[in-house]
Amino acid sequence: MFDAVKKFTDKHQKNGAVKYVKTNLGILSAFFIMFLFLSLATQRFLTADNWINIFRQVTTNTTISIGLMMAIIISGIDLTVGSIIALSGCVTVKAIVALGIPVFWAVILGCFVGALSGLITGCIIAYTDMPPFVVTLAMMNVGRGAAYLVANGSPIRLSTEEFEQIGSGYLGFIPLPVVYTGCLLLLTWFILNRTRLGRHIYAVGGNREAARFSGINIKRVQIFVYTYSGCLAAFAGIVLASRMASGQPAVGVGYETDAVAASVLGGASMTGGVGTIGGLVIGALVIGILSNGLNLLGVNSFWQYIAKGVVILIAVYIDMFRKRKQRF
């Protein structure tokens, strides 16, 4: 049975590498059409400053989408990412301002809080069999409330060069948040494609019963995925707090929507077992360019919410259509 699961996941991973363009042909086509349209519609779109801004802005969504995509791969969901962004940012800034903790250790503390939140979420899902949607929805409210409690309901200001460099610094001409996100993408790609844990993650989402009979510890996989997702969201929150020079308890509202959109557009299947880092990058770029392009065109922000909602519906429908076609 284990050999069957290994064969299934190895085949999935191989196809994901060899047939990347074919698998992501739809989203790649949409990406280039959008790119061409915006290039013709506004001259500002192709400027170097605008593209640096796009890459910097998509880093937050890409980072949280990594963990959320992994939750989707195991047939779950993680709605806590937005509230963890707020909580980790507030905890980190509060630790520096109120407790005088050095920036490095405050960042570690913020990441630990996010990982702990994910650990609690993962344990509840693994040991109670409650639906991940319900658990993460509840934990989203817990995290948001905790962020307001830590911040006493108002932003915590912090203006120090050491802290601001985390989110506003550069490595050459590349913004540091882009460097962080690139490293996290490579790390996650390695976990999913070159480790036994990654094989188990795909197996749990592809066929849970087969994974259980093959001896895979499903609870351990679930706990790892949600802990990892919480840690990634926390790090994204710390970088964002650094860019804003403050811990904002209200930040991150609705971020999970963009993360779901990026994951599904990138080819992650809501039924589980499917999802790649390469596809996720394209999905996140599409969402980022969509937001940037609508801003450049002067489109009302309310219409942007509608556009993103329509994009998610279309992406999920295409995924369902593809799955139905494969069955027949």
TrEMBL record:
Transmembrane feature ranges: 21-46, 66-91, 103-127, 133-151, 171-192, 223-241, 262-290, 302-321
Major subcellular location class: membrane
Membrane-protein topology: Multi-pass membrane protein
Molecular function terms, GO-annotated: transmembrane transporter activity
Domain of life: Bacteria
InterPro entries, sorted: ABC_transp_permease
Protein name: ABC transporter permease
